[in-house]
Amino acid sequence: MTTLRNLPEQRLYIDGGYADAQSEDRFETVNPATGEVICTVQSAGAADVERAVEA
Q1: β-sheet bridge partners, residue 53
Q2: Cα–Cα distance, 46 to 50 (Å, whole number)
Q3: DSSP 18-50
Q4: Phi then psi for 47, rounded to 5 degrees?
Q5: C-alpha distances in angstroms, 55 versus 27, 34, 36, 39, 42?
Q6: Burial of 51: CB neighbours in 10 Å, binned 0-12, 13-18, 19+
Q7: Quick one: the chain helix, strand, coil %, rounded to 5?
Q8: 13 — phi, psi (to 5°)?
Q9: Position 1 confidence tier, pLDDT thresholds 50, 70, 90
Q10: At 52, is the secondary structure helix, strand, or coil?
Q11: What rounded mean pLDDT belongs to the chain?
Q12: What three-state secondary structure class fits 53?
């Protein structure tokens, strides 16, 4: 059986590196089999999408 480990908060990957989202919004990634929260992910907004497109 595979055991999941909790991961640190995940950042956005833009232009070859990790970057913080402009927004403070976050969402949780949940293991559907157990309901366990695997990690929290920064939520990309319009400004983040624009940064990625410009990169």
Answers
A1: none
A2: 6
A3: EE--SS--EEEEE-TTT--EEEEEEPP-HHHHH
A4: -65, -35
A5: 24, 38, 35, 26, 19
A6: middle
A7: 15, 35, 50
A8: -110, 105
A9: very low
A10: helix
A11: 88
A12: helix
Contact in structure between 36 and 3 (CB atoms under 8 Å): no
Q: Which two tokens stand for residue 53?
A: 């497109």
Q: Give residue limits of the domains in the chain.
A: 12-54
Q: Which helix (H) or strand (E) element contains residue 2?
A: none
> Kindly report the CA angle at 29 between 28 and 35, in degrees rounded to 5?
100
Q: What is the pLDDT of residues 9-32, one digit of tens each?
A: 889 999 999 999 999 999 999 999
- The tokens describing 27, both together, are 């969402």
